[in-house]
């Protein structure tokens, strides 16, 4: 595999390639790729922000704070943090309903379609904090292929930054996480990948590169077009 990168690191050695500047590519090897969905393969940021902003305002919370905390984590985690005494399942279903209905602006990010088309079907999957229903709707809306063994918040007990999502993602493909490369866009996801033992490529589509580096990303690339 070949990947383009902006931040080289001697810790990463696989068979994709990362370009650490406009002219140099670094070859790396891995057994499989584990993709986050939102902010890595698709752009759903406007829809996510609209839903969570409305939810926050209706319940008297700071909408900017809620939107920032909600991205990249299971929605149920955010609901529990802000409404510890509420009916969490009911609140979460309402958030999911609104997100499923709001697909305006959900599109594939640069390079995503070409990258997925270049990979053997048994060497990649999606590991997302979305519920399974929401993930499938967004994948379809963006025109991406649906992987056979996707891991969603519906399949785990502990969300990112816990390593469980990426440990399961690697397992369903028949690999250890140490043999995989994780592609992420937020600190919680980067930390989940690192805690699972994987190498992590991060995209600054949601937060600044420095934030991703601080979280432990092995490389920060522009987007899937660099892979």
Low-confidence segments? 2-14
- Given helix and strand content, the structural type is alpha/beta
**Strand order of the main beta sheet, please?**
7-4-8-9-10
Categorize the overall geometry: globular
Radius of gyration: 17 Å
Share of helix among residues? 25-40%
Under CATH, the homologous superfamily of the largest domain reads HAD superfamily/HAD-like
CATH topology of the largest domain: Rossmann fold
- The DSSP helix count reads 9
What is the β-strand count? 10
User: How many structurally independent domains?
Assistant: 2
User: What's the overall average pLDDT, rounded?
Assistant: 90
Strand count, sense and closure of the main sheet?
5 strands, parallel
Question: How do the helices and strands follow one another from N- to C-terminus?
Answer: EEEEEHHHHEHEHHEHEHE
CATH class of the largest domain: Alpha Beta
Strand content bin: 5-15%
| Measured distance between first and last alpha carbons | 8 Å
Notes on the structure:
By secondary structure, this protein is of the alpha/beta class. It has two domains: 2-43 and 106-226, Rossmann fold, CATH 3.40.50.1000; 45-101. It has helices at 45-58, 63-70, 75-82, 88-101, 112-118, 132-142, 164-172, 187-196, 209-215; strands at residues 2-3, 17-19, 25-27, 32-35, 42-43, 107-108, 124-126, 180-184, 199-202, 219-220. The protein has a five-stranded parallel sheet, covered by helices on one side. A three-stranded antiparallel sheet has the order 1-3-2, with no helix packed on it. Strands 5-6 form a two-stranded antiparallel sheet. Strand 8 (180-184), helix 8 (187-196) and strand 9 (199-202) form a beta-alpha-beta unit. Helix 3 crosses helix 4 (88-101), helix 4 packs parallel to helix 6 (132-142) and helix 8 (187-196) packs parallel to helix 9. The longest helix is centred in the N-terminal third of the chain and has 14 residues, at 45-58. The chain is globular and about 50 Å long.
């Amino acid at each position: 595999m070949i990947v383009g990168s902006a931040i080289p690191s001697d810790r990463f050695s696989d068979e994709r390639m990362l370009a650490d500047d406009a002219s140099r590519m670094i070859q790396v090897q891995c057994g499989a790729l584990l993709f986050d969905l939102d902010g890595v393969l698709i752009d759903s940021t406007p829809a996510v922000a609209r839903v969570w902003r409305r939810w926050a305002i209706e319940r008297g919370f700071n909408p900017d704070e809620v939107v920032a905390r909600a991205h990249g984590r299971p929605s149920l985690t955010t609901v529990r943090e802000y409404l510890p005494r509420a009916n969490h399942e009911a609140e979460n279903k309402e958030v999911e309903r609104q997100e499923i209905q709001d697909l305006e602006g959900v599109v594939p990010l640069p390079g995503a379609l070409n990258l997925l088309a270049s990979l053997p079907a048994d060497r990649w999957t999606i590991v997302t904090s979305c519920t399974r229903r929401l993930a499938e709707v967004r994948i379809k809306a963006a025109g991406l292929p649906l992987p056979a063994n996707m891991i969603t918040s519906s399949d785990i007990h502990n969300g990112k930054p816990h390593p469980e999502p990426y440990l399961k993602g690697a397992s369903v493909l028949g690999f250890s996480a140490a043999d995989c490369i994780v592609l992420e866009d937020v600190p919680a996801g980067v930390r989940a990948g690192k805690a699972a033992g994987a190498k992590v490529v991060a995209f600054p589509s949601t937060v600044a590169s420095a934030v991703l580096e601080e979280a432990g990303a092995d490389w920060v690339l522009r987007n899937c077009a660099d892979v």
